[in-house]
Amino acid sequence: MGEQTEFEPGDKAPNPGIYTEVGEARSFHTQINNPKRVKLERGDTFPETTNKNRKWKKAEKARVH
Predict the structure, then answer these.
(1) In whole angstroms, what is the distance from residue 3 CA to residue 55 CA?
(2) Which pLDDT band, with edges at 50, 70 and 90, does 64 fall under?
(3) Are 40 and 8 in contact (CB under 8 A)?
(4) Burial class (CB in 10 A: 0-12, 13-18, 19+), 40
(5) CA dist 11 to 29, 40, 41, Å?
(6) What secondary structure letter does DSSP report for 38?
(7) How far does CA 33 lie from the centroid of its chain?
(8) Neighbours of 32 (CB within 10 A)
(9) Which tens digit of pLDDT belongs to each residue from 2-58?
C-alpha cells in the first residue's frame, strides 16, 4: 500500500508542508481557479474546503492542469 496523498477536511496532516485544494478525485476536467492553500505542521487538522467535492493535497504533489 502507498502513502495517502489526498485528505478530507478534519484529517490530520501527516507531514509539515503547504497543502492546496484539488478538484474531485480522478477528474481531469476540473480546474480550480485560485485554490485555497494552507501551511500545516505535522498533526494539524485540515480546514474546510470551499466546495464539498474538493480535497487537500500536498502542493508539490498536486496536479496542475
Answers:
(1) 16
(2) low
(3) no
(4) buried
(5) 26, 12, 13
(6) E
(7) 14
(8) 16
(9) 778 899 999 999 999 999 998 865 555 556 778 899 999 999 999 999 888 899 999
